[in-house]
Amino acid sequence: MTTKPLTEPELDEIYAFAVQLGKDAGKLLLDAAQARIGGKGSSTQAFSEKDSAVDIVTKTDEDVETFIRTRITRQYPDHAFVGEESYSKGSSRAYLINDATPTWCVDPLGGTVNYTHLFPMFCVSIAGGKPAIGVICVPFLNQLFTACRGRGAWLNETRRLPLARNPIPSMPPNAPSNCIFSCEWGKDRKDTPEGNLYRKLDSFLNMAAELWGRGGKGAMVHGVRSLGSATMDLAYTAMGAFDIWWEGGCWEWDVAAGIAILEEAGGLITTAKPPDDPLSARIKDARLGSRLYLAIRPAGPSDTETGREGQERTVREVWQRVRELNYTRPAA
Amino acid sequence: MTTKPLTEPELDEIYAFAVQLGKDAGKLLLDAAQARIGGKGSSTQAFSEKDSAVDIVTKTDEDVETFIRTRITRQYPDHAFVGEESYSKGSSRAYLINDATPTWCVDPLGGTVNYTHLFPMFCVSIAGGKPAIGVICVPFLNQLFTACRGRGAWLNETRRLPLARNPIPSMPPNAPSNCIFSCEWGKDRKDTPEGNLYRKLDSFLNMAAELWGRGGKGAMVHGVRSLGSATMDLAYTAMGAFDIWWEGGCWEWDVAAGIAILEEAGGLITTAKPPDDPLSARIKDARLGSRLYLAIRPAGPSDTETGREGQERTVREVWQRVRELNYTRPAA
Fold first, then answer.
1. Residue B41: pLDDT over 50
2. How many helices (H) and strands (E) does chain A have?
3. Alpha helices, DSSP H, located in chain B
4. Which residues are listed for Mg(2+) binding in this entry (chains A, B) (predicted)?
5. Contact call for A119 and B41, based on CB within 8 A
6. Quick one: pLDDT band at residue B45, thresholds 50, 70, 90?
7. Residue of B296, B261, B293, B320 lying closest to B181 (CA atoms)
8. Beta-strand (E) ranges in chain A?
């Protein structure tokens, strides 16, 4: 099945649908969390005390995905749907998004561990198109990140991203120094020197250590941040709050909405995997499904370079300091 | 000068004063941030484009501290005041809080680097007493953490802390496994094997690595989080969102309000420095001014132990996995 490109009014309509869906799904997440919260304003207890927090979260995850899929299927029966929960239960690990069918890519609950602990960095993430539309709703913080191709990226529908735009800051001349570097420890914690844990740690250390330390690789970033959610990391990079996000192991639903928002805000996203020639390799757009991502925040021009030049310079500096991570797709 | 203990009505009055002061100071932080934000709802540009973000932040830091100190001095002329900005400019590095004089301990802007980047994890932090009162206002997230001795700890004055209390979760039986571990990379990034950077990394790795990895020290925590603000880390530990916070290098204004809130919520705070006998050493309350802290979230009882027993068990497990950090007070 091949479909015609969407008209702009059609895109407007789908965008409005996605934004409302994100808000409604975010409210479901919040309502389920409320059941474990006491004090004034708490709802009635919806779960038996015997249910563990993990059971509750799994059920919420499934319920919210079903809610989103049902709404989408009813409104757009011709569209395809890729969701974290249904994918996990399916037998294939293939990359299921193609150019021929308009596809929704949904994570009903990003930051699952945060949600279990009621740490506010959890969200619902909805992407549509290739992705042309991105919606991330962070209900506990009342933050809604939205973007649609050609329509800008927004926080809470009123503040354009990146947030600092008086003016939009250029990349620091000595980046990654003076940058906030966002990264996650991940779930692969094998205690083996060639495992992802040690490859990540080596990379983090190069980024954090004093300038010229670590055999010249020390970058002395201004700060290292780990929020426990790739989706939130990307949203804050689009916002301009993080300068650099580097990660391996993400699935497409973790990043599809965030990529749409980041790119519409003017950010750059490419591969986390350092090429053989980091100083000269062409900087290609990230391939959704590749599981390896490096994002740079939106950047304004400086006296000596364009915003894009500053971003590309930063990509090359990061590539020289990070190691290749070992995340492949399981056999399709 | 020795003062009489405060009566309960006096404490109520001071608490109400501190809460309002925290809200007002938080609004000042937000207003100053708005000047760099564009889009609908932005205020007029208050700074010349030539001012760097860092200059703006330093000015904001000083202005907000002056605002807080002036209000306190006018209301309570007999009270002492210790603030981050005034301390930094003073010549002494001595610990200035004593039991004889009611003392306010204030950080006008916690999470300075976050503020510079408009990452929402910044706050104003106000503690009073020893500290009996703690107020942390996070204006960008509309989060206000407050506590007063005997009056409970609260989020936004309506939700009692810890947040999850249906029931309050016990510590996991295999803690630190299944815990969220909060820690920061800090500013000391010297590339020397015995420096704080490597001591921290060793400790982080022990906490993160697979169970029984790292020579038996691997704890496979559920997640590692770094927010870039000790004050925010403590607030989220009091909330129950983080299970464990371990840090060195904090000053008293970074933690005074957070400690008051954490303790009133039922959390435990002791020293980050592992004793010679981690399995049997007495677990003493943290000493404000010690610069080394280990906090455990509020915990409910399990079938086999009290909440306090679960917290103490967790402290001992952490002590066995972390290294001593080298943060002393500069010569007083």
1. no
2. 8, 12
3. 8-34, 53-75, 84-89, 112-117, 196-208, 230-239, 252-265, 307-319
4. 84, 107, 109, 254
5. no
6. very low
7. B296
8. 80-83, 103-110, 123-128, 133-138, 143-148, 153-155, 159-160, 180-182, 223-225, 244-248, 268-270, 292-296
Task: Please write the tens of the pLDDT for every residue from A99-123.
Answer: 778 899 999 999 999 999 999 999 9
Bridge partners (DSSP) listed for residue A181: A224, A244
The answer to whether A37 contacts B169, with C-beta atoms less than 8 Å apart, is no
**Contact: A117, B241; criterion CB under 8 Å:** yes
Q: Sketch out chain B's domains with CATH numbers.
A: 8-160 (3.30.540.10), 180-319 (3.40.190.80)
Q: Using CB atoms, which residue from A53, A113, A224 is nearest to B226?
A: A224
pLDDT category, A3, cuts 50, 70, 90? low
pLDDT score for A51: 57
Query: Does A156 contact chain B (CB < 8 Å)?
Result: no
**What is the chain B residue with the closest CA to A209?**
B189
* Yes or no, beta carbons of B39 and A165 under 8 Å apart: yes
Rg (chain B; Cα; Å): 20
Chain segment B134-179, per-residue pLDDT in tens: 999 999 999 999 999 999 999 999 999 999 998 999 999 999 999 9
Q: pLDDT of B273-302, one tens digit each? A: 999 999 999 999 999 989 999 999 999 999
Residue A104 or B100, more confident = A104
- The response to whether A109 counts as a known ligand-binding position is yes
Q: Is residue A303 within 8 angstroms of chain B, CB to CB?
A: no
Closest chain B residue by Cα to residue A243: B117
Give percent above pLDDT 90 in chain A.
80
Residue B145 bridge partners (DSSP): B136, B155
Q: How far is B241 from chain A (nearest CA, A)?
A: 5
Backbone angles phi, psi at B235, to 5 degrees: -60, -45
Minimal Cβ distance to A220: which of B120, B189, B220 = B189
**What mean pLDDT do residues A93-103 have?**
77
Interatomic CA distance for residues B172 and B178, integer angstroms: 7
Pairwise CB contact (< 8 Å): A191 & B224: no
